[in-house]
Amino acid sequence: MKKISTSLYMPHEIEIEKISENSVKINVYPFQAGFAITVAHPLRRLLYGSSAGFAVTAVKIDGVTHEFDSIRGMLEDVALFILNLKNIRFKIKDNSNKVEVNYSFKGHKEIKGSDMDNDDVEVVTPDNHLATINEDAELNFSLIIEKGIGYIPSEEFRNNAPEDFIPVDAFFTPVRKVVYSIEQMLVEDDPTFEKIIFEIETDGQIAPVQAFKESIEALNGQIAVFSKAMDIEISTTEDDFENSADMQKLLQDVSVMSLSARSFNCLDRASIKYVAELSMMSELELKGLKNLGKKSFEEITSKLEALGFPVGFKFEDDFYKALNTNIQELKIETSEA
Questions:
Q1: In whole angstroms, what is the distance from residue 46 CA to residue 198 CA?
Q2: What is the pLDDT of residues 137-173, one digit of tens each?
Q3: Residue 184 near residue 191, CB atoms below 8 Å
Q4: CATH number for the domain running over 52-171
Q5: Which of 23, 71, 132, 134 is 20 to 30 A from 305 (CA-CA)?
């Protein structure tokens, strides 16, 4: 006789296998029958749709007025040059969302991605071909590289492109492949449980495990709206708060936000250890932290919004009190350890 369940079985195992520098296999299990597909499909869509990356949005080439032109001494015409350019993937080295970079090449040369590294950007596809020029050629061009999500066609940039720049289709998504399979597995004599096997590959702008983490954060953020919007009367005892999913999320170390070293070190110097401490601050208080620059402020606020608890979030009074109590207890335990 099949055992009668009174609550959902919660998956608790995750295994990560590194296939290559930009490819991983992730196994998550065990799920009750039917729940694996419920989780796997939206995560796959979010991996493609929520991961931020960098792309060229406009190019200016000396002596060129449109994308159907040609360049003296270059094997490729401008259309093929732009097509090759789309396949070269960049990362902006600081926390900027936009940068303009200039390049100049002269004499016989096959130009590859590795030739385009400089102080502003890193090329994560160094072997990708851009163009071939002969000994009499001189190629000077500028790129606008921006950070974004998803795909934006060149027509969207045409009205805002600087003078003499040609807009370029921007495929920001750094995730190149996400496939999943679902296998049945045995749990306590029940063979109907399921395992999800994800295979994730990125272009090198972001590590595949990091992309997976960010997709989970995005999924949590999207679902969180329902608990805030629904008019549901919830018990507010301290025990309930301590066991709630929101409480657990807020009491996580700030390291789960995957902040840049500059932002993390600033919080560490201010003795801010938990996500809740940031969420309970006002924008003015956060901006007032010593050595916290504009880019770090934008990064922190963006991460908090993704978690569903933006800066200055208005908590219920009882929840706020319980949250404060838990933070103080955690800090005392940490200092005594």
A1: 13
A2: 999 999 999 999 999 998 888 888 888 899 999 999 9
A3: yes
A4: 2.170.120.12
A5: 23
Q: Token pair 């295979």 is at which residue? A: 199
β-bridge pairing 151-152 and 170-171: antiparallel
Residue 9's nearest CA partner among 30, 28, 27 is 30
Which tens digits make up the pLDDT trace of 99-113? 999 999 999 999 999
Distance CA 177, CA 228 (A): 34
Report, as ranges of residue numbers, the positions in the chain whose pLDDT lies below 50: 232-243
3-state secondary structure of 247: helix
pLDDT tens-digit readout, 258-268: 888 888 888 88
Looking at the chain, which residues constitute the CATH 1.10.150.20 domain(s)?
A: 233-337
Q: According to CATH, what is the number of the domain 233-337?
A: 1.10.150.20
